[in-house]
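Re-run with default settings, no changes from the original entry. Doing this only to confirm the output is reproducible before filing.
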Amino acid sequence: MTLVGKIFTTLILVMSVLFLGIAITVFATHKNWRELVEDPDTGLKTQLATANNKLRDMQDEQARSLELLATEQAARRHALGSLHTKWQDQSEKLRTTENAFSKLQADHRRYIEVAEQSTIALEKLNTEVVKLRQEILAAQQARDTTFTQIVNITDQLNESEGTLRQLQEIQNQLAEQVSEYKKVLDAHDLTLADGDLRAPTVDGLVTKVGKSDLIEISLGSDDGLREGHTLDVFRKGTYLGRVIVRHLQPDRAVGVIVKEFRRGLIKEGDRVATNLANI
């Protein structure tokens, strides 16, 4: 029930009570109705006038109440319109949020799939990395082995080059000696047929090292040596120098070291030979 209905119900109730009271008063009293009506103090006209005044006051109050009710209804309609607008805005925001949430859920599912695929790929890569590490380790070991072989080969090559240079020097020195021998033979009008100055192919050891660059070897005249023969001294393939035979005995000989050909310290046990193939 609205406020207007309540007001009208109240007015009807008041009027009913009022008229009921008047009726009860009229029937309860047996007075002169003219006097009762026209009595200026307690007459019905006075009461009617008072009641009319009250009715007008109540009607004015009703009008004010209706006006207030209209104002409140307008305010409520305005507030309701504002709430409806806000509700529409919130509904739109809710739909937008739901759409965004749906999109986020789809993105989340897609990201999960990508993450799962990435995990599988990562596991494969880890397996490949382990395999590559093993291959790298094997390659490093092979490289180290190869490097060691290269170093050894390089050392052998350097040693061979050193030996080659020594042999080239020996060859050059031999060529110079041959040239000097030829000059001597030419100066004395001799030929190789007049005497063999070449030492026979022998292979012996240094048995003693003395002073004044003299050494004793385990070869003698029984081995075909003669004074003036030249022999080369080696140790484990390393050229040490050259000696010239000065004194001979059947089983030993004494030679002097040629300073120009010295390439190292000659010791007991070093090998002495005339054939390079024997070193």
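Helices lie at 3-28, 33-38, 44-187. The chain is about 65% helix and 15% strand.
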